[in-house]
Design goal:
This protein has 12 helices and 21 strands. With 472 residues, the chain is an alpha+beta fold. The chain has 3 domains: 110 residues, no CATH class; 256 residues, Rossmann fold (3-Layer(aba) Sandwich); 90 residues, no CATH class. Strand 20, helix 11 and strand 21 form a beta-alpha-beta unit. Helix 6 packs across helix 10 and helix 10 packs across helix 11. The protein is globular and about 75 Å long.
């Protein structure tokens, strides 16, 4: 891929999700490439947001990236990707002048671990974090090859000195773009630090990696990704409870996650209500597909790109200002690869399998038109609000009071709309749910109070612990 933008003296030129039209991205699939060989990329062929030849004369800078593992759409530049230096060129006319030659001369390094812990706490953390690498029989049978479920078990600071004590357990998973290393480097140190300083009660945290080559599998039981929910509840959790001093009862098993992790934990609670004692899902992906971000998938002639009045459908906003449209996001994903992007990831989770063995698209990438047959499948299988309403008589005894949902009124991806609709369904059913809308909060600052980026974790953990240990 080639990234081109107006010269600003950047150390790297990369995609900007919050301003997707600011960078030209041209791509080409390369199946076999040897050191020293050259590849020409036509910047008017597979390109976003528009052919580079239409760009005005000016000063530009460019950088080349070889997405070696087809992971750019999910997590951006990854360790092992090859990159060039940033090349700058003045008074360049894309229509008149030839493009720059760039050499892939650097390899992206592994991310440096960030523990956020004081030196004296680091040794305790290192002895409290334990890797999970579990081969799932049911997923292995589905794929015909070994499938590993990965993550981390974080035991609390007092675990080693209290050899007979059992602990409530939180099953936590990340959002889209999250990784196994990110769980260990970003979240685990935060939980450990807050437990050791008594900001959070002592519990066991199981940090689950839900990333995959198709995006996030969201622990859904899917015809495309496989039975991840069944693998978690029937295989991994019993295994972990045999290895660690977990409560191993409904009132001691909790779910928590943000964004795609918020949807995953909400889904798991609704689908397996007899397993878990409650979910605390924050800013979940759409839980009612009448509001799939800003699209009603069930409306007549529904369209991902245009509203009924013909206006562009937004997908990203920043405190009221539209920063990207659904069409821009979809066509950007088409350039950066038909694998692992957010929209295609949804289809790998929610869609029926097509005749070619891949998930059926929910919408036409050229026109934006929604396929009503695929939308009907999404509704009957994965629309959480619909699923709760249709099955409430059987769900009620095990689900009532267990749904906790928190979202900002200015969510960056408009996810508050679906949350409002879900809340209305839950209220109508008398589900005794706890849905909170935090005024002015976005997708990215929901947990922050003052200068504390993670303050909401304290509240959530305290509410979980009150259920597991009511006497405390």
């Amino acid at each position: 891929m080639i990234f081109v933008q107006h010269a600003v003296g950047a150390k790297q030129v990369d995609m900007n999700q919050m301003d997707p039209t600011s960078v030209y991205i041209a791509a080409k699939e390369v199946e076999a490439w040897t050191p020293g060989a050259t590849v020409d990329i036509d910047a008017d062929d597979l390109v976003s947001p528009k052919p580079l030849s239409t760009a005005p004369i000016g000063d530009y800078e460019a950088q080349a990236v070889l997405d070696e593992g087809h992971t750019y759409n999910y997590a951006g530049r990854a360790p092992g990707d090859l990159v060039s230096e940033v090349v700058r060129f003045a008074a360049w006319s894309p229509r008149r002048d030839s493009g720059p030659t760039m050499t892939l001369s650097e390899t992206q390094p592994d991310a440096s671990p960030v523990t956020n812990l004081a030196t004296e706490e680091k040794a305790g953390f290192d002895s409290s974090i334990h890797p999970i690498d579990f081969v799932s029989p049911v997923l292995t049978a589905f794929w015909g090859r070994q499938i590993h479920m990965k993550g981390w078990v974080l035991t609390p600071p007092g675990y080693g000195s209290n050899g007979h004590s059992h602990y409530p357990t939180v099953y936590f998973t990340h959002g889209f773009g999250g990784t196994l290393n990110g769980l260990c480097n970003r979240y685990a140190p935060v939980f450990y630090d807050r437990m050791i300083h008594k900001q959070m009660p002592e519990m066991i945290w199981v940090l689950l990696d839900e990333s995959s080559p198709t995006g996030t599998h969201e622990f859904a039981d899917s015809v495309n990704n496989g039975p991840w929910g069944a693998a978690l509840t029937n295989e991994l959790i019993p295994f972990l409870e045999s290895q660690y001093r977990m409560d191993a009862r409904v009132s001691g098993r909790f779910l928590q996650g943000h964004s795609s992790g918020g949807w995953a934990t909400l889904w798991l609670q609704v689908t397996y209500p007899k397993i878990f004692g409650g979910t605390w899902s924050t800013s979940p992906d759409p839980s009612d597909f009448h509001a799939f971000s800003t699209v009603d998938l069930y409306a007549p002639h529904a369209n991902f790109y245009r509203s009924p009045s013909g206006e562009a459908v937004p997908i990203i906003r920043d405190h009221g200002q539209v920063r990207a449209t659904m069409e821009q996001l979809a066509k950007l994903e088409r350039v950066t690869g038909n694998y692992g992007g957010q929209l295609r990831s949804f289809e790998w989770v929610f869609s029926p399998r097509g005749v070619d063995g891949t998930p059926m698209p929910i919408f036409d990438r050229e026109t934006g038109e929604v396929d009503p047959a695929v939308a009907a499948y999404w509704q009957s299988h994965y629309d959480i609000a619909h699923r709760i309403e249709e099955n409430w008589p059987s769900l009620a005894p095990d689900l009532r009071g267990k749904i906790h949902l928190i979202v900002g009124t200015e969510d960056t991806f408009y996810l508050d709309g679906a949350a409002h609709r879900l809340a209305q369904v839950l209220d109508k059913l008398g589900a005794e749910s706890h849905v909170i809308f935090l005024p002015g909060k976005t997708h990215f600052d929901l947990y922050q109070t003052g200068n504390d980026r993670y303050a909401l974790f304290d509240t959530i953990a305290a509410e979980m612990y009150a259920i597991a240990r009511p006497s405390h």
